[in-house]
Amino acid sequence: MQVNVSGLKDIKEGEEVVLNGWLQEIRILKNISFIVLRDHTGTIQITSKPGLTTGYDVLSQMTRETVISVSGNLTRKTQSKSGVEVIAKSIEVLNASKSPLPLGIIDPVSADIETRLTNRFLDLRKPEVAMIFRIESELLWGMRQFFHDSDFVEVHTPKIVAAATEGGADLFPVQYFEKQAYLNQSPQLYKEMLISAGLNRVFEVGPAFRAEKHNTPRHLNEFTSIDIEMGFADHNDAMLMLQEGIKSGIRHLIAHRQEYIASLSQRIDVPEGDFPKITYRDCITKLESQGEIAKFGEDFTPEQLKIIGGEFQGFYFITEWPSSLRAFYTHPKPGDEKVSNSFDLQYREFEITSGAQRVHDPAMLEERLRSKNLNPEDFSFYLNAFRYGMPPHAGWGLGLERLSLIMLNLQNIREAILFPRDRTRITP
Ligand code: 4AD
Ligand code: MG
Q1: I want to staple 287 with a disulfide (CB 3.0 to 4.6 A). Which of 202, 210, 248, 292 is the partner?
Q2: In 204-279, which ranges are continuous DSSP H helix?
Q3: Ligand 1 atom with least separation from CA of 187
C-alpha cells in the first residue's frame, strides 16, 4: 500500500508499505544501512540489510536528495526517534540527484537569502520554509470562504492596462503591439467599474506590479493583492469587512491546521474584539507630544509608525488621511475635505491594507483627477462607468505577503513569496 510518512501512524506492525520521496540522509555501516526518507508530510528512517533489501548494492552510490521509492514492512520495535521505522525489501532510484547540492536541506548553518532564492526549489524542500506557504494558503482559503459567504463574487480583471491607478511614477511599461500599455498596479479601476456593472460585491486575488526602485525588506515589485469592493457601502463597512475577513482567515487556520501552528515558534490567535481606530490627526498629536516633528500632509516615517504602533496590541486602523496623500478616487470627508474617508490597516509599523470610500460623483471624480495633475481623457473608459448610475461604494487592497510577514514574524517579505521580484531579481 502506498502511504505518506504521516499516514504510517495508522499502519499495523509488520504491514507492507510503499513510500516515495527524497533521500535526505544516508548512513552506510558494515552490515546495515539507514536512510532518512522525506516526503511532503515528514521523515522516516528506513533500515536496509544486504540479502534482505533489493538494491542494497547500489546504496553507496546514492546521493542526497535522490528521488526514491521504498517498499518494506513497518516496525515499531525501533530505536528511532519517531518510534516507527520501515525495514526495506527494495529501494529503487526514480531519479538521481546531482552532487554536491548548491543548498543543503538539513545543513544547520542557514544559507544567505540570495543563495536560497536562487535555489528556491531546494530551499522550499525545508519543511519550515514550505510551512510559510501552507499557512498562507489556509489563511487565504479562510478569507475566500468568508467573502464567498458574505455574497462577494470572485473576479479576475486585466493586468495589462492603459492607465495608472496609484500614481504614475511606479509603472512598468509594456509594449502592446502599436500601443503603450502598463502592468496593473492594482485592480482599483476595474473593481470600481464592476460596482457600476451591478455585481454589488466583488473580490479578487491576483498579482499587482509596482516599479518602485527601492529595495527594502517590506517591498516587492510584484505582490499578491487581495482586493474587495462593495456597493452601497462606505469606509466603515469596508473596515468591518476587512476585520472580519482577517479573523475568518485566522480562525480557519486554527480550526483546520493545528499541526501547522504547533510547528511555529510564535503564537497565532484570533484577534479579539474590534480593531482599534486612530485618526491621522490624532497620530500627529501623539507624535508631537513625544517630541517628534510630524507635519499634516506628510507620510509617517517607519520610526514614527513604530511609536504609534507601540500603543496597540495587534492590528489597528489609521483613519482620515489627508486627501493630498491619497489617490484621486478617495472620497473626501464631507464637511472636512482636507481629510478623506480613508484608512490603512496597520500592524506595528507595517501597513497591511489601504482602503477608502470612493468618489462616486463623476463631476467630483474629474475634478479630483485634475487636482492630481491627471488628464480625465486618459480615464474616459473608467469615468464612463460613473455617468450612468454608479452606486456609492468602498473597498480596500491587502498585500498577502505583508499579512504573512506580520503573522509569521518574518524578517524579509521575500520569505513570503515563492519567487520574489525585486529591484534586481527576475529569476527564477
Ligand atoms: O496601499 P496600496 O498602494 O493601495 C492600493 O493599491 C489601493 N488601490 C487599495 C484600495 O483598494 N484603496 O496597496 C495596498 C496594499 C498595501 O497596504 C500593502 O499591503 C500592499 O498592497 N503593497 C505591497 N506589498 C508588497 N510590496 C509592495 N511594493 C506593495 N505595495 C503595496
Ligand atoms: Mg497604501
Answers
A1: 292
A2: 235-256, 258-262
A3: 8
Mark out the alpha helices in 56-124 (DSSP H runs). Answer: 113-118, 120-123
Distance 102 CA to ligand 1 centre (A): 35
How many whole angstroms from 290 Cα to the centroid of ligand 2?
A: 25
Task: In whole angstroms, give the CA distance from residue 382 to residue 362.
Answer: 10
All structural domains of the chain with their residue ranges: 5-95, 122-416
- The third-level CATH classification (topology) of the domain covering 122-416 is BirA Bifunctional Protein; domain 2 (3.30.930)
pTM across the whole model: 0.96
**159-205 pLDDT tens trace:** 999 988 777 789 999 999 999 999 999 999 999 999 999 999 999 99
Mean pLDDT over residues 353-369, rounded? 98
Which CATH code of 2.40.50.140, 1.20.1050.10, 3.30.420.240, 1.10.275.10 fits the domain covering 5-95?
A: 2.40.50.140
Residues lining ligand 1, judged by CB closer than 6 Å? 165-166, 186, 188, 210, 212, 219-220, 223, 225, 227, 351-356, 395-399, 401-402
pLDDT in tens, 371-404: 999 999 999 999 999 999 999 999 999 999 999 9
Residue 299's identity, in one-letter code, is: D
Based on the residue annotation, tell me whether 144 is a catalytic residue of this protein. no
Cis peptide before 302 (omega within 30 of 0): no
pLDDT of residue 89: 98
